[in-house]
Amino acid sequence: MELITAIRGRRTILDFKSEKVNKALLLKLFNNAAYAPNHHMKEPWKIKIYEDDARSVFGEKIVDSYIRLGLLKTSNEEKLMRARQSYDRFFTSIPHHVLFYIDKEDDGGYVDEENFAAVCAFIQNFQLLAWEKGIGTMWTAKKTLLDEVFIRDIGLLPEKHKLIAVVQVGYPNKVPKAKERTPVEGKIDWINTEEIR
Ligand SMILES: Cc1cc2nc3c(=O)[nH]c(=O)nc-3n(C[C@H](O)[C@H](O)[C@H](O)COP(=O)(O)O)c2cc1C
């Protein structure tokens, strides 16, 4: 697949087949994604992959966080139970939930920002490499990633770790239509005179 075809053709997938992606293939994609640029060769990406029975438990912890953060209202027990069931169906319908995080080095300072950026480059490499193999992804990031209780719930430490994204991975059931992009011309200032002084 040509690079431009992968870049323009990749879509965020919301509806996945239940079939798992072969572990060796996933590892190959991650190892190729690791050629992402990263300052001082820190290779800061750390990854947890939730599969099989771990998906429900992971999903529950995310929903607990949504409730804590007020993203999911709790006033009606019956409705809450149905919402939990619906989230559980969502989490168990997707074969792999891939959590990306980094070790904090300067607690939100510039080094952490650099490492965060490198992991984003890794994620996009991974998304494109996956797409080339017919594998879909959904990059998700919500306030939950900052929720200290959630961070502890998944066995990490808020003072030591920064969560970056959860990427859902699997073969697409349905590929959504492309969302067209705005021409970038309007977002560029070409600066090539002494006016910069
Ligand atoms: C940092 C980040 C966070 C995102 N969070 C979500 C999310 O929480 N839920 C979701 O459905 N998509 C999420 N997306 C995917 C975007 O919605 C998607 O890329 C955008 O709508 C464009 O669609 P496309 O990827 O199919 O081109 C996120 C993407 C990025 C880069």
Distance between the termini: 45 Å
What is the C-alpha radius of gyration, as a whole number of Å? 19 Å
CATH topology: NADH Oxidase
Derived structural class? alpha+beta
Q: What letter string, H or E per element, gives the SSE order?
A: HEHEHHEHEHEE
CATH superfamily: NADH Oxidase
Q: Could you tell me the number of beta strands? A: 6
Number of helices: 6
Bound molecules: flavin mononucleotide
CATH class: Alpha Beta
CATH architecture: 3-Layer(aba) Sandwich
Number of domains: 1
Poorly predicted parts = none
Oligomeric state of the chains in view: single chain
Strand adjacency order, main sheet: 2-3-5-4
Percentage of residues in strands: 15-25%
- Please bin the fraction of helical residues: 40-55%
Task: Give the overall form.
Answer: globular
Largest sheet: 4 strands, antiparallel
